[in-house]
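To whoever picks this up:

The nightly regression suite flagged Gliding motility-associated ABC transporter ATP-binding subunit GldA as changed. Nothing in the input moved, so I suspect the structure step. Input below, exactly as stored in the fixture:
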Amino acid sequence: MSIEVQNISKSYGEQKALDSISFSIKKGEIVGFLGPNGAGKSTLMKILTTYIVPDIGTAKVNSFNIETESKSVQKSVGYLPEHNPLYLDLYVREYLAFNADVYKVDKSKIDDVIKLTGLTPESNKKIGQLSKGYRQRVGIACALLHDPEVLILDEPTTGLDPNQLVEIRELIKNIGKDKTVFLSTHIMQEVEAICDRVIIINNGKIVEDKNLKSLVNEQTTQIITVEFDKVIVSDDLNDLENLVSITFINQNQLELTFDTTIDMRSSVFDFAKEKNLKILQLNQKNKNLEQIFREKTSKK
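Regenerated output under the current build:
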């Protein structure tokens, strides 16, 4: 396993940030770590990168214990914190050379990570002259300098514009072909585009941990929005199987919610034919990751 977390708890005074967290991540997985603000995401990432220690429990990264073998953990992890700590007055190559000295790696690695992260056109500029997207690339390049097996990325795309988002997502996805990636984000589309698996945390506890496709596909809620050519009353729809609720958008347009994994569009078409109705438009909306996240983390 690339990451093993066993019964980790961490408190700040009276506030419990993590409450007996346990999970493991296999080599080569890209795992999204999701949760609302204050759920404990950054705390766990700081523990896995040895910045802080847990109150209870332990973890291993690349088989190294985070407390007793912290130096080995640091050498085998690439970390991009939420607030990317860059020296804005340094040139890109100068900054990477400084970090190469820290990691004691050959300076030839600098050209490798510049090319890998798409920094070549900006590599001779001062970091302070770069856009937010290119600054994030510098942070990722720095995290890759020592060729770590595990990348831990805390909110890697915060503040990026739509074009930069796509570029950084593609970069992370390509890196994930050879490395284990553990990333936190608030952007559900990012997880859907990049990740193999999702771990959702709320109030310091894991509330979901599943393969992303399985998590979405197992959802039984199905919403169909349909517009008929005539006014319809709700009683007319009672014969539709698996129907759990009806919402009228207007007299002719409705939102039908079904509880089933069966595609109910054909049933709606059959219903319309039986009632001598014409369907003017029909759209199906299955539950997506954002809806699942909101259900799992909403205050009860």
